[in-house]
Amino acid sequence: MNQNRRSFIRAGGLTLAASGIVPAFLQSCTSESLESGLSDMTLGVQALGDNDYLARQEKVKRLMQNDGVDALWIEGGTNLKYFFDLNWWISERVFGVVLPAKGEPVWVCPDFEAPRAEESIRFGKDLRTWEEHNSPYKLLNDVFQSLPAKNIAIDPNVRSFVIEGIRRESDVELIDGSSLIDHCRGIKTEKELAYMELANNITKRAYKWAFSQVESGMIPDDLRTLISEGHKQLGVSGGGWPLFGSNSAFPHGTSKVSGLKDGDIILVDGGCSVEGYQSDVTRTIVFGTPTDKQKQVFDIVKKSQMAAHNAIRPGLPAGDVDRIARKVVEDAGYGPQYKYFVHRIGHGIGMDGHEWPYLVKNNPLPLEPGMTFSNEPGIYIYGEFGIRIEDCFVVTEDGAEFLGGMLCNSLDDPFGE
User: Fold this and answer.
1) How far apart are alpha carbons 128 and 99 in whole angstroms?
2) Which residue of 28, 255, 335, 403 could cross-link 392, Cys pair, CB 3.0 to 4.6 Å?
């Protein structure tokens, strides 16, 4: 990746250049040399500031005005964190914020929680409370009337009993707020991309360090511990979920536990977060010498990943990415459709490991610059092995860029360039 293509992920004083550590994998890489390079990579990372959150609020307010929406109701969860930098425990007691299309946010809170809310809320001073014997939905109705607001978009994470309570106590029109929120969160800023670039690079480095220490007889928990320790030394909390041998044919794992032996596939899926932004990386290697079939299947999976990657451009329907990747696998004899490549090619990623939008068959959504996804083709042969390669990427103005560098070249070189 040349520097010009990577300049879009600069943010403030943070420039993240992805590079491999050592070209040869296990043969020339000792645990001692890797350990000397495992240091905190998050030092100096700049957190989001008030202006970033205010810009998000203004963006969704503009979208609301364009769509004729009067206000947006958000409860605790990722969306509250995204727009207001507030983490709040979700319980049966209603807490949240009404964000008007024009005007300042209004907070709704249990009365006994008001002192804690006042300490935590950074945006908006209008805090309205309800006592334990009162209905929070009547209070919400009072808020809607005072704004005034008739068309209310609902955060898609709002629980159904809260939605029914609002309907019961008010005559407002409730609208699915997914499109408003998705359009904000789905298009990443330079700072968000920088966090994701770093998170993905950290996970790959943690994997590489952990993989250098695999030994015969290990069980998945042993490798999982090493991967977690690698993330920790690199400055984050993260992990991986290893599968050995024939268990690698289960895309999301199995209850079966097997000890590592010569010739086994090792498949690891996992990640971490930097400033709340996620990585998602899968690598597949062989402990020992790979068979011809393992190498053949790997080559098909890698070709599928790159065919999808090279086709990505703004305006391409999201479903076409899956179609292009799947055709490579089918043409190689591992079809039809989901027979061996059992899942979609990718999912959106950001503050949540899986989030809108999705690269799945028949999704007509046009790709836009700033959207971020996983690209993770796989072939799974039950009773034998599975191979998956997963790297995250961002859609650019003229194509796509992988995040975190250290791309997988072969079963023997899973962390190249």
Assistant:
1) 14
2) 403
User: How far is the C-alpha of 258 from the C-alpha of 267, rounded, in Å?
Assistant: 13
Q: Is 224 exposed, middle or buried (0-12, 13-18, 19+ CB in 10 A)?
A: middle
Tens of each residue's pLDDT in the chain, 417 residues: 333 333 333 333 333 333 332 223 333 333 433 444 799 999 999 999 999 999 999 999 999 999 999 999 999 999 999 999 999 999 999 999 999 999 999 999 999 999 999 999 999 999 999 999 999 999 999 999 999 999 999 999 999 999 999 999 999 999 999 999 999 999 999 999 999 999 999 999 999 999 999 999 999 999 999 999 999 999 999 999 999 999 999 999 888 898 999 999 999 999 999 999 999 999 999 999 999 999 999 999 999 999 999 999 999 999 999 999 999 999 999 999 999 999 999 999 999 999 999 999 999 999 999 999 999 999 999 999 999 999 999 999 999 999 999 999 999 999 996
- Rounded to an integer, what distance in angstroms lies between the CA atom of residue 304 and that of residue 326? 7
CATH code of the domain containing 175: 3.40.350.10
The answer to whether residue 125 sits within a structural domain is: yes
Give the global pTM: 0.90
Residue 248 and residue 340 share a domain: yes
- Choose the final residue of a domain: 185, 216, 244: 185
Same domain, 333 and 348: yes
Identify residue 131 by its one-letter amino acid code: E
